[in-house]
Amino acid sequence: MARQSLPLAHTLLVLVAAGLPLAGCASGGVSEAPADPAGSAAPAPEDAPAAPAAAVADTPDPPPDATPETPPGGIFTNAQARRGRTTFDEVCSECHTTSEFRGRTFQRTWGRRTVYSFFRTIRSTMPDDNPGGLEEQIYLDVVSYILSMNGHDGGAAELGSDSPMREVRIAPPESSP
Fold first, then answer.
1. Is 169 helix (H, G, I), strand (E, B) or coil?
2. 25, 93 Cβ separation under 8 angstroms
3. Quick check: pTM over 0.70?
4. What is the mean pLDDT of each run of 10 residues along the chain (177 residues)?
5. What is the CA radius of gyration of the chain?
6. Other Cβ atoms within 10 Å of 64 Cβ, number
7. Structural domain boundaries in the chain
8. Alpha carbons 167 and 100: distance in angstroms, whole number
9. How far apart are CA 98 and CA 108, in angstroms?
């Protein structure tokens, strides 16, 4: 399959950054496993009440002038980033190149936004032919890979739905604008 030209890829990145759905991506990135409507997170302990899903999705990102810090050791593991790279190579690369997710243009669009904002956007818009159709863990792995491409270091814990995604910016602290 032929790669898209850089100007078209830039246009697609801008549309995705704006949260607009795209048409025409033939990634075929449908998950082999059946969709889990409750999510793939481990069940909460019996004594801990489960947070309603709507409360998580409706919580706004911190204001752009806030400067959240990356937790010591990072919010994903290097193994998770490697899994994300494999998924990117097998699914995402049919429509995207890695250069779309690093560098000045990407940082200008996403650098001040939170990891959660980016995760939420790709989870709801990708793959283009089946938005939201992958397992949550696959999206988290791809986000981990993109964070690693942008200078974040891996840590001891995997990026998960309970990670501090709302407090961490896409741009690592030393390269924040």
1. strand
2. no
3. no
4. 39 41 40 38 38 38 46 84 98 96 94 96 95 97 97 95 93 64
5. 16
6. 12
7. 66-171
8. 23
9. 16
Q: Check if the beta carbon of residue 133 is closer than 8 Å to that of residue 63.
A: no
- For the chain, helix, strand, coil in percent to 5 are 45, 0, 55
DSSP 114: B
66, with CB counted inside 10 A (0-12, 13-18, 19+), is exposed
Residues in the chain, total: 177
CA distances from 39 to 19, 56, 100, 109, 116 (A): 22, 13, 28, 28, 16
Q: Report d(CA 153, CA 97) in Å as an integer.
A: 21
Query: 């924040």: which residue's tokens?
Result: 176
d(CA 157, CA 20): 32
